[in-house]
Amino acid sequence: MHRFVIHGITRTRKRPSTWVPCEYIFGHKDLKTCKNWFERLMACINNEGNRPKNLMVFVHPLCGKGRGVRNWETVAPLFDKAKIKTKVIVTERAGHAYDTLASLSDIELKALDGVVAVGGDGLFNEILNGILSSRYKASYPPNPEGFGYFESNENYEEQIRNGLNCSVRTPDSANTTFPGNSSNCDDHEPLLSTSQPTGLEIPSQNPSKEPCTGDQDHLVSFPNDWFRLGIIPSGSTDAIVLSTTGERDPVTSALLIILGRRMSLDIAQVVRWKSSPTAEVLPTVRYAASFAGYGFYGEVIRESENYRWMGPARYDFSGTMVFLKHRSYEAKVAFLETPNTNSLTASADDVTGAQPLQSRHKKSRKIICRTNCFVCKEASTSGQKSEDEIADSSRKICENPKWVWSEGRFLSVGAAVISCRNERAPDGLVADAHLSDGFLHLLLIRDCPLPLYLWHLTQFTKKGLDPLSFKFVEHHKTTAFTFISSHDESVWNLDGEIFQACEVSVQACRGLVNLFASGPEV
Q1: Which GO MF terms does the UniProt record name (predicted)?
Q2: pLDDT tens digits for 383-393?
Q3: What percent of the chain has pLDDT over 70?
Q4: b/e map of 230-257 (b: 16 or more CB within 10 Å)?
Q5: Which are the catalytic amino acids?
Protein backbone atom coordinates (compact mmCIF):
# COMPACT_ATOMS: atom_id res chain seq x y z
CA MET A 1 0.00 0.00 0.00
CA HIS A 2 1.39 3.39 -1.05
CA ARG A 3 0.41 6.27 1.20
CA PHE A 4 0.71 10.04 1.52
CA VAL A 5 -0.34 12.49 4.26
CA ILE A 6 -2.43 15.65 3.95
CA HIS A 7 -2.13 18.20 6.75
CA GLY A 8 -5.32 20.12 7.48
CA ILE A 9 -7.27 21.78 10.26
CA THR A 10 -10.27 20.94 12.37
CA ARG A 11 -12.55 23.00 14.62
CA THR A 12 -15.12 22.29 17.31
CA ARG A 13 -18.58 23.76 17.75
CA LYS A 14 -17.81 24.89 21.30
CA ARG A 15 -14.71 26.84 20.22
CA PRO A 16 -15.08 27.58 16.51
CA SER A 17 -12.34 30.24 16.58
CA THR A 18 -9.69 27.69 17.64
CA TRP A 19 -7.96 25.90 14.77
CA VAL A 20 -6.31 22.56 15.47
CA PRO A 21 -3.91 20.89 13.00
CA CYS A 22 -4.80 17.35 11.93
CA GLU A 23 -3.57 14.72 9.45
CA TYR A 24 -5.40 12.66 6.84
CA ILE A 25 -3.69 9.56 5.43
CA PHE A 26 -4.56 8.45 1.90
CA GLY A 27 -3.38 5.24 0.27
CA HIS A 28 -3.73 3.01 -2.78
CA LYS A 29 -2.10 -0.17 -4.03
CA ASP A 30 -1.22 1.48 -7.33
CA LEU A 31 1.74 3.89 -7.04
CA LYS A 32 0.73 5.74 -10.21
CA THR A 33 -2.73 6.42 -8.79
CA CYS A 34 -1.19 7.77 -5.58
CA LYS A 35 1.09 10.08 -7.55
CA ASN A 36 -1.83 11.32 -9.63
CA TRP A 37 -3.83 12.15 -6.50
CA PHE A 38 -0.82 13.89 -4.96
CA GLU A 39 -0.11 15.98 -8.06
CA ARG A 40 -3.76 17.04 -8.42
CA LEU A 41 -3.92 18.09 -4.77
CA MET A 42 -0.65 20.05 -5.01
CA ALA A 43 -1.93 21.80 -8.13
CA CYS A 44 -5.07 22.89 -6.25
CA ILE A 45 -3.01 24.20 -3.34
CA ASN A 46 -0.61 26.08 -5.62
CA ASN A 47 -3.53 27.74 -7.39
CA GLU A 48 -4.67 29.35 -4.16
CA GLY A 49 -3.22 32.81 -4.71
CA ASN A 50 -3.86 34.05 -1.18
CA ARG A 51 -1.38 31.68 0.44
CA PRO A 52 1.93 33.37 1.36
CA LYS A 53 5.22 31.99 0.06
CA ASN A 54 7.78 34.38 1.59
CA LEU A 55 7.49 35.92 5.05
CA MET A 56 9.68 37.97 7.33
CA VAL A 57 9.26 36.97 10.99
CA PHE A 58 10.32 39.10 13.98
CA VAL A 59 10.60 37.17 17.26
CA HIS A 60 10.67 39.09 20.55
CA PRO A 61 12.83 36.91 22.85
CA LEU A 62 11.72 38.45 26.17
CA CYS A 63 8.01 39.21 25.76
CA GLY A 64 5.62 37.40 28.08
CA LYS A 65 8.49 35.91 30.11
CA GLY A 66 10.14 34.34 27.08
CA ARG A 67 7.02 33.03 25.36
CA GLY A 68 8.05 34.53 22.03
CA VAL A 69 10.87 32.07 21.32
CA ARG A 70 8.91 29.09 22.67
CA ASN A 71 5.85 29.90 20.59
CA TRP A 72 7.89 30.29 17.42
CA GLU A 73 9.58 26.92 18.04
CA THR A 74 6.09 25.43 18.36
CA VAL A 75 4.66 26.82 15.12
CA ALA A 76 7.79 26.88 12.92
CA PRO A 77 7.30 23.22 11.81
CA LEU A 78 3.85 24.17 10.47
CA PHE A 79 5.42 26.74 8.14
CA ASP A 80 7.98 24.16 7.01
CA LYS A 81 5.24 21.65 6.19
CA ALA A 82 3.42 24.33 4.19
CA LYS A 83 6.66 25.09 2.30
CA ILE A 84 6.61 28.75 3.30
CA LYS A 85 9.99 30.45 3.32
CA THR A 86 10.59 32.48 6.48
CA LYS A 87 13.35 34.98 7.22
CA VAL A 88 13.46 34.87 11.04
CA ILE A 89 14.94 37.81 12.96
CA VAL A 90 15.20 37.66 16.75
CA THR A 91 15.07 41.28 17.96
CA GLU A 92 18.20 42.32 19.83
CA ARG A 93 17.29 45.81 20.95
CA ALA A 94 14.55 48.38 21.10
CA GLY A 95 13.66 49.57 17.61
CA HIS A 96 15.31 46.62 15.82
CA ALA A 97 12.19 45.73 13.82
CA TYR A 98 11.40 49.38 13.05
CA ASP A 99 14.88 50.09 11.71
CA THR A 100 14.92 46.90 9.64
CA LEU A 101 11.60 47.58 7.92
CA ALA A 102 12.15 51.31 7.47
CA SER A 103 15.46 50.60 5.69
CA LEU A 104 14.05 48.00 3.27
CA SER A 105 13.94 49.00 -0.37
CA ASP A 106 10.63 48.61 -2.15
CA ILE A 107 12.10 45.82 -4.27
CA GLU A 108 12.99 43.92 -1.09
CA LEU A 109 9.57 44.57 0.40
CA LYS A 110 7.75 43.43 -2.75
CA ALA A 111 9.61 40.11 -2.51
CA LEU A 112 7.67 39.44 0.70
CA ASP A 113 4.03 38.46 1.10
CA GLY A 114 3.92 39.85 4.62
CA VAL A 115 5.57 40.40 7.98
CA VAL A 116 4.78 38.39 11.12
CA ALA A 117 5.29 39.53 14.72
CA VAL A 118 5.91 36.84 17.33
CA GLY A 119 5.32 38.98 20.39
CA GLY A 120 2.80 41.37 21.86
CA ASP A 121 0.93 44.47 20.74
CA GLY A 122 4.06 46.59 21.25
CA LEU A 123 6.12 44.63 18.72
CA PHE A 124 3.24 44.77 16.23
CA ASN A 125 3.06 48.55 16.72
CA GLU A 126 6.77 48.84 15.96
CA ILE A 127 6.41 46.78 12.77
CA LEU A 128 3.37 48.80 11.72
CA ASN A 129 5.21 52.11 12.13
CA GLY A 130 8.34 50.78 10.42
CA ILE A 131 6.33 49.89 7.32
CA LEU A 132 4.06 52.94 7.17
CA SER A 133 6.53 55.64 8.26
CA SER A 134 7.65 56.45 4.71
CA ARG A 135 5.17 54.51 2.58
CA TYR A 136 1.77 55.89 3.59
CA LYS A 137 1.15 59.31 2.09
CA ALA A 138 -1.90 61.14 3.36
CA SER A 139 -2.93 64.54 4.67
CA TYR A 140 -2.74 65.27 8.36
CA PRO A 141 -5.96 64.82 10.36
CA PRO A 142 -8.47 67.67 10.04
CA ASN A 143 -8.71 70.31 12.77
CA PRO A 144 -11.33 72.93 13.58
CA GLU A 145 -10.19 76.42 12.67
CA GLY A 146 -9.22 78.54 15.64
CA PHE A 147 -8.87 75.53 17.90
CA GLY A 148 -5.93 75.88 20.31
CA TYR A 149 -2.65 77.06 18.82
CA PHE A 150 -4.08 76.93 15.29
CA GLU A 151 -5.60 80.35 15.96
CA SER A 152 -2.23 82.05 15.55
CA ASN A 153 -0.37 79.65 13.31
CA GLU A 154 -1.54 80.05 9.73
CA ASN A 155 1.57 78.36 8.33
CA TYR A 156 0.79 75.13 10.09
CA GLU A 157 -2.86 75.36 9.14
CA GLU A 158 -1.66 75.32 5.53
CA GLN A 159 0.67 72.42 6.36
CA ILE A 160 -2.24 70.50 7.81
CA ARG A 161 -4.18 70.88 4.58
CA ASN A 162 -1.30 70.02 2.29
CA GLY A 163 1.21 68.13 4.43
CA LEU A 164 2.12 64.52 3.68
CA ASN A 165 3.54 61.92 6.03
CA CYS A 166 6.59 61.34 3.84
CA SER A 167 8.09 64.56 5.23
CA VAL A 168 7.44 63.80 8.90
CA ARG A 169 10.30 63.07 11.26
CA THR A 170 10.72 59.84 13.16
CA PRO A 171 10.23 60.26 16.93
CA ASP A 172 13.49 60.58 18.79
CA SER A 173 14.59 60.19 22.37
CA ALA A 174 14.99 63.93 22.84
CA ASN A 175 11.24 64.58 23.06
CA THR A 176 9.69 61.15 23.49
CA THR A 177 9.80 58.85 26.50
CA PHE A 178 10.11 55.24 25.46
CA PRO A 179 9.50 52.19 27.62
CA GLY A 180 11.64 49.13 27.27
CA ASN A 181 14.78 51.08 26.49
CA SER A 182 16.82 48.35 28.14
CA SER A 183 17.64 44.70 27.66
CA ASN A 184 14.78 43.70 29.97
CA CYS A 185 12.02 44.85 27.62
CA ASP A 186 8.83 42.82 27.59
CA ASP A 187 6.17 43.67 25.01
CA HIS A 188 7.48 47.14 24.36
CA GLU A 189 9.47 47.84 21.21
CA PRO A 190 9.89 51.64 21.06
CA LEU A 191 10.66 53.35 17.82
CA LEU A 192 14.23 54.46 18.29
CA SER A 193 16.18 55.51 15.25
CA THR A 194 19.70 54.11 15.55
CA SER A 195 22.74 53.70 13.38
CA GLN A 196 23.26 50.06 14.31
CA PRO A 197 23.19 47.56 11.43
CA THR A 198 20.03 45.55 11.00
CA GLY A 199 21.78 42.30 10.17
CA LEU A 200 19.26 41.71 7.40
CA GLU A 201 20.25 39.81 4.28
CA ILE A 202 17.45 39.55 1.72
CA PRO A 203 18.11 38.64 -1.90
CA SER A 204 17.41 41.72 -3.96
CA GLN A 205 17.09 42.33 -7.67
CA ASN A 206 18.40 45.84 -7.06
CA PRO A 207 22.14 45.69 -7.87
CA SER A 208 22.88 48.93 -6.07
CA LYS A 209 21.09 47.71 -2.93
CA GLU A 210 20.46 51.27 -1.89
CA PRO A 211 17.77 51.82 0.74
CA CYS A 212 14.75 53.93 -0.03
CA THR A 213 15.17 57.61 0.65
CA GLY A 214 12.67 60.39 1.10
CA ASP A 215 13.30 61.58 -2.45
CA GLN A 216 12.70 58.19 -4.04
CA ASP A 217 9.29 57.50 -5.55
CA HIS A 218 7.95 54.54 -3.59
CA LEU A 219 6.80 51.58 -5.60
CA VAL A 220 5.00 50.20 -2.53
CA SER A 221 2.22 52.26 -1.03
CA PHE A 222 -0.58 51.62 1.42
CA PRO A 223 -3.32 50.55 1.41
CA ASN A 224 -2.82 47.69 -1.06
CA ASP A 225 -4.33 44.26 -1.62
CA TRP A 226 -1.34 41.93 -1.41
CA PHE A 227 0.78 42.80 1.65
CA ARG A 228 -0.39 41.45 5.01
CA LEU A 229 0.69 41.59 8.64
CA GLY A 230 0.40 38.73 11.09
CA ILE A 231 0.71 38.22 14.84
CA ILE A 232 1.54 35.06 16.73
CA PRO A 233 0.42 36.06 20.25
CA SER A 234 3.14 36.00 22.88
CA GLY A 235 2.58 39.21 24.85
CA SER A 236 0.95 40.25 28.09
CA THR A 237 -2.49 41.19 26.74
CA ASP A 238 -2.56 40.42 22.97
CA ALA A 239 -5.61 42.62 22.45
CA ILE A 240 -5.14 42.84 18.69
CA VAL A 241 -5.12 39.05 18.24
CA LEU A 242 -8.12 38.50 20.51
CA SER A 243 -10.10 41.21 18.70
CA THR A 244 -9.27 39.92 15.21
CA THR A 245 -9.27 36.11 15.68
CA GLY A 246 -11.24 35.53 18.88
CA GLU A 247 -8.49 33.31 20.32
CA ARG A 248 -5.17 33.91 22.02
CA ASP A 249 -3.66 30.78 20.51
CA PRO A 250 -0.31 30.73 18.66
CA VAL A 251 -1.24 27.65 16.58
CA THR A 252 -4.52 29.18 15.42
CA SER A 253 -2.76 32.39 14.38
CA ALA A 254 -0.07 30.40 12.55
CA LEU A 255 -2.68 28.40 10.61
CA LEU A 256 -4.53 31.60 9.64
CA ILE A 257 -1.26 32.91 8.22
CA ILE A 258 -0.43 29.67 6.40
CA LEU A 259 -3.85 29.44 4.74
CA GLY A 260 -3.63 33.07 3.67
CA ARG A 261 -6.69 34.48 5.40
CA ARG A 262 -7.07 38.21 4.84
CA MET A 263 -9.07 41.01 6.38
CA SER A 264 -8.73 44.81 6.43
CA LEU A 265 -7.92 46.67 9.61
CA ASP A 266 -8.41 50.35 10.45
CA ILE A 267 -5.39 52.23 11.75
CA ALA A 268 -5.30 55.43 13.81
CA GLN A 269 -2.96 58.12 12.51
CA VAL A 270 -1.71 60.16 15.47
CA VAL A 271 -0.01 63.49 14.76
CA ARG A 272 1.79 65.15 17.64
CA TRP A 273 2.01 68.91 17.16
CA LYS A 274 3.73 69.76 20.45
CA SER A 275 5.41 67.47 23.00
CA SER A 276 5.00 70.09 25.78
CA PRO A 277 3.26 73.47 26.13
CA THR A 278 6.57 75.33 25.70
CA ALA A 279 7.91 73.20 22.83
CA GLU A 280 7.99 74.30 19.23
CA VAL A 281 5.31 73.11 16.82
CA LEU A 282 6.86 70.11 15.11
CA PRO A 283 4.51 67.50 13.54
CA THR A 284 5.47 63.91 14.32
CA VAL A 285 3.38 61.01 13.01
CA ARG A 286 2.76 57.70 14.71
CA TYR A 287 0.24 54.90 14.03
CA ALA A 288 -1.79 52.76 16.42
CA ALA A 289 -3.71 49.59 15.60
CA SER A 290 -5.77 49.17 18.76
CA PHE A 291 -5.85 52.10 21.17
CA ALA A 292 -4.57 55.60 21.91
CA GLY A 293 -5.15 56.91 25.44
CA TYR A 294 -4.15 59.80 27.70
CA GLY A 295 -4.35 60.21 31.47
CA PHE A 296 -5.10 56.98 33.33
CA TYR A 297 -4.15 54.82 30.33
CA GLY A 298 -0.82 56.60 29.82
CA GLU A 299 0.08 56.71 33.50
CA VAL A 300 -0.41 52.95 33.92
CA ILE A 301 2.15 52.28 31.18
CA ARG A 302 4.56 54.90 32.55
CA GLU A 303 4.25 53.59 36.11
CA SER A 304 4.72 49.98 34.99
CA GLU A 305 8.22 50.82 33.73
CA ASN A 306 9.35 50.95 37.37
CA TYR A 307 8.25 47.35 37.98
CA ARG A 308 9.46 45.40 34.98
CA TRP A 309 10.88 42.75 37.28
CA MET A 310 7.28 41.76 38.11
CA GLY A 311 6.55 40.61 34.57
CA PRO A 312 2.97 40.94 33.26
CA ALA A 313 1.70 41.36 36.85
CA ARG A 314 3.19 44.86 36.84
CA TYR A 315 0.18 46.15 34.88
CA ASP A 316 -2.24 45.11 37.66
CA PHE A 317 0.01 46.64 40.30
CA SER A 318 0.61 49.85 38.36
CA GLY A 319 -3.08 50.15 37.53
CA THR A 320 -3.93 49.96 41.23
CA MET A 321 -1.31 52.58 42.13
CA VAL A 322 -2.51 55.00 39.45
CA PHE A 323 -6.15 54.40 40.36
CA LEU A 324 -5.54 55.26 44.02
CA LYS A 325 -3.86 58.55 43.05
CA HIS A 326 -7.10 59.48 41.25
CA ARG A 327 -5.61 62.30 39.20
CA SER A 328 -7.55 64.29 36.65
CA TYR A 329 -6.22 66.44 33.81
CA GLU A 330 -7.41 69.70 32.30
CA ALA A 331 -7.92 69.29 28.55
CA LYS A 332 -9.96 70.36 25.57
CA VAL A 333 -11.17 67.88 22.95
CA ALA A 334 -12.92 68.53 19.62
CA PHE A 335 -14.28 65.72 17.45
CA LEU A 336 -16.08 65.45 14.15
CA GLU A 337 -19.78 64.78 14.49
CA THR A 338 -20.98 61.77 12.47
CA PRO A 339 -24.49 61.08 11.14
CA ASN A 340 -24.92 58.53 13.95
CA THR A 341 -24.53 61.28 16.54
CA ASN A 342 -27.80 63.02 17.36
CA SER A 343 -27.89 66.78 16.82
CA LEU A 344 -26.92 68.79 19.89
CA THR A 345 -29.00 71.66 21.13
CA ALA A 346 -26.37 74.35 21.53
CA SER A 347 -25.47 76.69 18.71
CA ALA A 348 -22.08 76.56 17.05
CA ASP A 349 -19.20 78.66 18.31
CA ASP A 350 -18.76 81.71 16.06
CA VAL A 351 -14.97 81.46 16.10
CA THR A 352 -14.25 77.73 15.85
CA GLY A 353 -17.41 76.48 14.16
CA ALA A 354 -17.55 73.79 16.84
CA GLN A 355 -20.58 72.96 18.97
CA PRO A 356 -20.33 72.68 22.76
CA LEU A 357 -21.54 69.39 24.19
CA GLN A 358 -24.73 69.71 26.23
CA SER A 359 -26.65 66.48 25.77
CA ARG A 360 -26.02 62.77 25.47
CA HIS A 361 -27.24 60.80 22.47
CA LYS A 362 -29.14 57.58 22.82
CA LYS A 363 -27.29 54.30 22.57
CA SER A 364 -28.03 52.23 19.49
CA ARG A 365 -28.24 48.47 19.42
CA LYS A 366 -24.82 46.87 19.58
CA ILE A 367 -23.66 44.94 16.53
CA ILE A 368 -20.56 42.89 17.32
CA CYS A 369 -17.88 42.56 14.64
CA ARG A 370 -17.54 38.94 13.50
CA THR A 371 -16.30 36.93 10.53
CA ASN A 372 -17.80 38.33 7.29
CA CYS A 373 -19.08 41.35 9.21
CA PHE A 374 -21.72 43.15 7.11
CA VAL A 375 -20.96 46.53 8.74
CA CYS A 376 -17.32 46.41 7.65
CA LYS A 377 -18.29 45.14 4.19
CA GLU A 378 -20.83 47.90 3.67
CA ALA A 379 -18.33 50.51 4.90
CA SER A 380 -15.81 49.25 2.36
CA THR A 381 -18.42 49.24 -0.41
CA SER A 382 -19.62 52.74 0.42
CA GLY A 383 -16.08 54.07 0.14
CA GLN A 384 -16.04 53.06 -3.53
CA LYS A 385 -19.27 54.91 -4.44
CA SER A 386 -20.16 58.51 -4.90
CA GLU A 387 -22.01 60.34 -2.18
CA ASP A 388 -25.34 60.09 -4.01
CA GLU A 389 -24.99 56.32 -4.31
CA ILE A 390 -24.27 55.62 -0.66
CA ALA A 391 -27.19 53.82 0.96
CA ASP A 392 -25.36 52.55 4.03
CA SER A 393 -26.81 54.22 7.10
CA SER A 394 -23.75 53.31 9.19
CA ARG A 395 -21.29 55.10 6.90
CA LYS A 396 -22.89 58.21 5.41
CA ILE A 397 -20.74 61.10 4.30
CA CYS A 398 -21.45 64.53 5.77
CA GLU A 399 -21.07 67.35 3.28
CA ASN A 400 -20.56 69.84 6.13
CA PRO A 401 -19.31 67.89 9.16
CA LYS A 402 -19.57 69.76 12.43
CA TRP A 403 -16.96 69.94 15.15
CA VAL A 404 -18.20 69.24 18.67
CA TRP A 405 -16.03 70.27 21.59
CA SER A 406 -15.80 69.09 25.16
CA GLU A 407 -13.55 70.57 27.82
CA GLY A 408 -12.91 70.24 31.53
CA ARG A 409 -11.06 67.86 33.81
CA PHE A 410 -10.77 64.27 32.61
CA LEU A 411 -9.52 61.14 34.31
CA SER A 412 -8.72 59.76 30.87
CA VAL A 413 -9.15 60.46 27.18
CA GLY A 414 -9.00 57.44 24.91
CA ALA A 415 -9.75 56.35 21.36
CA ALA A 416 -10.38 52.67 20.56
CA VAL A 417 -9.74 51.61 16.97
CA ILE A 418 -10.97 48.06 17.67
CA SER A 419 -12.80 46.46 20.59
CA CYS A 420 -9.50 45.81 22.47
CA ARG A 421 -10.68 42.52 23.96
CA ASN A 422 -8.37 40.84 26.43
CA GLU A 423 -8.54 38.32 29.24
CA ARG A 424 -9.31 41.00 31.84
CA ALA A 425 -11.90 42.72 29.65
CA PRO A 426 -13.72 39.97 27.70
CA ASP A 427 -15.91 42.46 25.80
CA GLY A 428 -13.06 44.96 25.42
CA LEU A 429 -13.21 48.70 25.93
CA VAL A 430 -15.92 49.12 23.27
CA ALA A 431 -17.79 45.88 22.61
CA ASP A 432 -19.30 47.00 19.29
CA ALA A 433 -16.18 48.58 17.76
CA HIS A 434 -15.60 47.23 14.25
CA LEU A 435 -12.33 46.26 12.62
CA SER A 436 -12.66 48.17 9.34
CA ASP A 437 -15.61 50.58 9.39
CA GLY A 438 -13.48 53.73 9.35
CA PHE A 439 -14.45 55.00 12.81
CA LEU A 440 -12.76 55.69 16.15
CA HIS A 441 -14.57 55.33 19.46
CA LEU A 442 -13.67 58.37 21.55
CA LEU A 443 -14.02 57.77 25.31
CA LEU A 444 -13.97 60.81 27.60
CA ILE A 445 -14.00 59.95 31.31
CA ARG A 446 -14.73 63.10 33.29
CA ASP A 447 -13.57 63.64 36.86
CA CYS A 448 -15.82 61.81 39.31
CA PRO A 449 -15.71 60.36 42.86
CA LEU A 450 -13.32 57.46 43.33
CA PRO A 451 -16.04 54.85 44.14
CA LEU A 452 -17.89 55.66 40.91
CA TYR A 453 -14.70 55.35 38.88
CA LEU A 454 -14.04 51.98 40.49
CA TRP A 455 -17.56 50.88 39.58
CA HIS A 456 -16.93 51.97 36.01
CA LEU A 457 -13.65 50.02 35.76
CA THR A 458 -15.10 46.83 37.26
CA GLN A 459 -17.78 46.82 34.55
CA PHE A 460 -15.08 45.88 32.03
CA THR A 461 -14.25 42.61 33.80
CA LYS A 462 -17.49 40.75 32.97
CA LYS A 463 -19.24 40.02 29.69
CA GLY A 464 -22.53 41.69 28.90
CA LEU A 465 -22.13 44.77 31.14
CA ASP A 466 -22.12 48.37 29.92
CA PRO A 467 -19.22 50.37 31.40
CA LEU A 468 -20.00 53.31 29.08
CA SER A 469 -23.47 54.02 30.50
CA PHE A 470 -22.32 56.24 33.39
CA LYS A 471 -23.14 59.96 33.32
CA PHE A 472 -19.48 60.94 33.64
CA VAL A 473 -18.56 58.84 30.56
CA GLU A 474 -18.84 60.27 27.05
CA HIS A 475 -18.70 57.84 24.12
CA HIS A 476 -18.53 59.31 20.63
CA LYS A 477 -18.17 57.51 17.33
CA THR A 478 -16.08 59.75 15.12
CA THR A 479 -13.60 59.79 12.26
CA ALA A 480 -11.21 62.33 13.78
CA PHE A 481 -10.55 64.37 16.91
CA THR A 482 -8.08 66.92 18.27
CA PHE A 483 -6.74 67.05 21.84
CA ILE A 484 -5.05 70.00 23.57
CA SER A 485 -3.75 70.26 27.12
CA SER A 486 -2.06 73.30 28.62
CA HIS A 487 0.10 71.04 30.79
CA ASP A 488 2.41 68.09 30.25
CA GLU A 489 1.24 66.19 33.34
CA SER A 490 0.56 62.90 31.55
CA VAL A 491 1.55 60.92 28.45
CA TRP A 492 -0.19 59.07 25.63
CA ASN A 493 -0.37 55.30 25.41
CA LEU A 494 -0.24 54.05 21.79
CA ASP A 495 -0.72 50.26 21.69
CA GLY A 496 1.24 50.02 24.95
CA GLU A 497 3.97 52.46 23.87
CA ILE A 498 4.58 55.80 25.62
CA PHE A 499 4.17 58.92 23.47
CA GLN A 500 4.87 62.34 25.03
CA ALA A 501 2.46 64.93 23.63
CA CYS A 502 0.22 67.75 24.82
CA GLU A 503 -1.36 68.59 21.45
CA VAL A 504 -2.37 65.80 19.07
CA SER A 505 -4.71 65.19 16.17
CA VAL A 506 -6.01 61.70 15.44
CA GLN A 507 -7.91 60.28 12.49
CA ALA A 508 -9.10 56.83 11.46
CA CYS A 509 -7.53 55.42 8.28
CA ARG A 510 -10.07 52.90 7.01
CA GLY A 511 -8.66 49.54 5.93
CA LEU A 512 -5.10 50.87 5.83
CA VAL A 513 -3.46 47.46 6.35
CA ASN A 514 -4.42 43.82 5.83
CA LEU A 515 -4.09 41.14 8.49
CA PHE A 516 -3.67 37.38 8.26
CA ALA A 517 -7.02 36.95 10.03
CA SER A 518 -10.72 36.50 9.31
CA GLY A 519 -12.40 37.95 12.41
CA PRO A 520 -13.82 36.19 15.48
CA GLU A 521 -16.23 33.34 14.76
CA VAL A 522 -19.80 33.50 16.03
Answers
A1: ATP binding; ceramide kinase activity
A2: 554 333 333 33
A3: 77
A4: bbbbbbbbbbbbbbbbbbbbbbbbbbbb
A5: 121
